[in-house]
Design goal:
By secondary structure, the protein is mostly helical. It folds into 2 domains: about 60 residues, no CATH class; about 240 residues, MetI-like fold, CATH 1.10.3720. It is built from 17 helices and no strands. Helix 4 packs across helix 16 and helix 10 runs antiparallel to helix 13. The longest helix is centred in the N-terminal third of the chain and has 36 residues. It is flat, with a radius of gyration of 28 Å.
Length: about 350
């Protein structure tokens, strides 16, 4: 009897609630439907496709970005416990994982963990340097394709930029190691031309690493710049030239202000991917170019300390967010303009 009432009563109240709510929903359904179909996004894509895109984006953001990062954040405040003790009385929150990054182990002679802090700072500075290199290289290319090249020439240049990236990133990194090695193509060419007597160690000097990282993310700088510069009315450039402005002033006062969203977007993408790179630093890095992601990798794998690795990963994520906010502030652009 109790089981009967336990099943009947919830069903009864559900049906009663549906009967009471149905007239209200029916009364306002027309207005709700008109408001939905009045949205430009829905008018452009249709109700079915718009719903699919909205659900797909929300699912992607929630399950692939928010939940993993939230789990990582929670994990970074935990003790490194064996599986049997997880969830037990010892599984409490702690700040020791972050304290270790700053101060090192308790009882160390050094006041700060200069080794890991130095690697972190060097990674951030090197990533900024790679971003600047990419901008210097990609800005003329993007401007030429967007404003100078016409028709088939522009399409051919874009194709030539894309083709090398059909090769796997790791294979490209090994190709750069062959190019910049002491017995590689560049040293062999320089010695053959008599420019140098002894091979230059480009790996130890981090030349190969910076070149490899700059090349790996070149498209992520070119296309945002191209997209922004292409929308610039060429008549503005011609008018500035007719008024006697030198080429550098045209770019400084006309092109670059117009391309600020593209510059911010490209710099953001290149910096975050360079700071989070792992394969290129492992293959092309020298003894003095230890990357922060390599420390994170070791904590998660050979170190077997996932909470510590999670704390380091969160610190790197915060550094990337600070860089993004700084770029937005410097270029005075919104997140929506960067995402275009």
């Amino acid at each position: 009897m109790n089981d009967f009432f336990g099943l009947f009563l919830p069903a009864f109240f559900a049906v009663l609630l549906a009967i009471l709510v149905a007239p209200v929903v029916q009364k306002h359904s027309g207005a709700v439907w008109r408001s939905i179909t009045g949205i430009k996004f829905v008018q452009r894509n249709g109700v079915v496709i718009s719903t699919y895109l909205l659900v797909a984006v929300i699912a992607w953001v929630v399950f692939m970005i928010i939940l993993p990062q939230a789990y990582m954040l929670d994990f970074s405040f935990r003790h490194n416990l064996p599986p049997g003790k997880i969830g037990g009385p010892e599984d409490v929150y702690t700040l020791k994982n972050y304290q270790y990054l700053i101060f090192g182990r308790p009882g160390d002679e050094e006041m700060f963990n200069w080794l890991h802090l130095g690697v972190f700072i060097r990674t951030i500075v090197a990533s900024i340097f790679v971003t600047l290199i990419n901008f210097v290289i990609c800005y003329p290319i993007a401007y030429y394709i967007a404003q100078v090249a016409k028709g088939g020439q522009a399409r051919a240049l874009i194709l030539f930029l894309i083709l090398p990236f059909w090769v796997n990133e790791i294979l490209r990194a090994f190709a750069f190691r062959i190019l910049f090695g002491t017995s590689g193509v560049i040293n062999a060419f320089l010695q053959t031309m008599g420019i140098i007597d002894q091979p230059i160690d480009f790996i130890r000097a981090d030349v190969a690493l910076y070149a490899g990282l700059s090349y790996a993310y070149i498209l992520l700088m070119v296309f945002p710049l191209y997209n922004a510069i292409e929308s610039l009315d060429h008549n503005q450039v011609e008018a500035a030239r007719d008024l006697g402005s030198p080429w550098w002033r045209i770019h400084w006062r006309v092109v670059i202000p117009h391309a600020k969203p593209g510059i911010a977007s490209g710099c953001t993408l290149v910096f975050m991917l360079a700071a989070g790179a792992l394969a290129a630093p492992q293959i092309l890095g020298g003894p003095s170019s230890f990357w922060f992601t390599q420390i994170i990798y070791r904590w998660f794998n050979t170190g077997g300390n996932w909470p510590q690795g999670a704390a380091y990963a969160i610190v790197l994520l915060l550094a990337c967010l600070i860089f993004v906010l700084t770029v937005m502030r410097v270029f005075k652009v919104s997140l929506g303009e960067i995402a275009k």
